[in-house]
Specification:
- The protein is α+β, with helices and mostly antiparallel strands and 242 residues long.
- It folds into two domains: 20-63; 74-232, Glucose Permease (Domain IIA) (Distorted Sandwich), CATH 2.70.70.
- It contains three helices and 16 strands.
- It has helices at residues 23-42, 47-60, 147-150, and strands at residues 20-21, 62-63, 74-76, 81-89, 106-113, 120-122, 127-135, 153-159, 165-172, 179-181, 188-189, 194-198, 202-208, 212-214, 221-222, 228-232.
- The longest helix has 20 residues, at 23-42.
- The chain is globular, with a radius of gyration of 20 Å.
- GO terms for molecular function: phosphatidylserine decarboxylase activity.
- It catalyses: a 1,2-diacyl-sn-glycero-3-phospho-L-serine + H(+) = a 1,2-diacyl-sn-glycero-3-phosphoethanolamine + CO2.
- It is found in: Cell membrane.
């Protein structure tokens, strides 16, 4: 019997490609493209700026493939962006109580997303969506601490197979005007799965259980679905990224 040659270890089998555009954004790309095309016949001097705007809208709604680390005792970043705050805070009222995250203060890791970041958000753990709580509010700069209490926001609570509950919050910002959820209570999700999107600049907060230590530092950039932001029983990473 003829032997089957196997490719040597390290042989590349994946090629780079342009990220897909998330379905939530395709209509906006189509609208921008239509306006750019119309300007060609009406005000052709603004056609090129509108073409660049179309590419910008497409880039905003890009939805790249992510490879999520596998294993126990890890929390995965729910958002692309800059870690701007790591501090112990009182829980938002919506996340308090025995059916939520309890009453004790928790460490909050805040990830700020600029308009240049990917805005598709992902769940930090595998489990069941227990709560999705939407709250209308203001549109302050999402980088401000008070934005977590005053801005439009949406809380998620995910419970894993061992009963661990993780809460994270999508917060709208100055430019963001819509928080979109892809899941509902009762849905099963796996770590790194897409759960929502915030349009045009915003922030995501993650609340760490007491026995989880932050694995990111202030100023560090995270990648949704890939960066490990906290680990159970580990030592906290300290310092400020330069």
């Amino acid at each position: 019997m003829a032997s089957i040659d196997k490719p040597p270890l390290g042989t590349p089998t994946v090629k780079w490609r342009f990220p897909d555009i998330h379905p939530e954004g395709r209509k906006y790309v189509a609208i921008a493209a239509a306006i750019a095309l119309l300007s060609l016949f009406v005000f052709d001097f603004i056609t090129w700026p509108l073409v660049f705007l179309t590419f910008g809208v497409a880039a905003f709604f890009r939805d790249p493939i992510r490879v999520t680390p596998q294993g126990e005792g890890m929390l995965i970043a729910p958002a692309d962006g800059l870690v701007t705050m790591i501090q112990r805070v009182e829980l938002p009222p919506e996340l308090r109580g025995p059916q939520a995250l309890g009453e004790a203060p928790m460490v909050r890791v805040s990830i700020f997303m600029s308009v240049f970041d990917v805005h598709v958000n992902r769940t930090p753990i595998t489990g069941t969506i227990r709560h999705v709580i939407y709250i209308s509010g203001r549109f302050l700069n999402a980088d401000l601490d008070k934005a977590s209490e005053e801005n439009e926001r949406q809380h998620f609570i995910v419970e894993d197979k061992n009963g661990l509950r993780i809460g994270f919050t999508q917060i709208a910002g100055l430019v963001a005007r819509r928080i979109v959820s892809f899941t509902k209570p009762g849905d099963m999700v796996v770590a790194g799965q897409r759960v929502g999107l915030i349009r045009f600049g915003s922030r995501v907060d993650v609340f760490l259980p007491e026995d989880y230590a932050a694995q990111v530092t202030l100023g560090q950039r995270t990648i949704a679905g890939e960066t490990v932001i906290a680990r159970k029983g580990g030592a906290a990473v300290t310092g400020i990224s330069q």
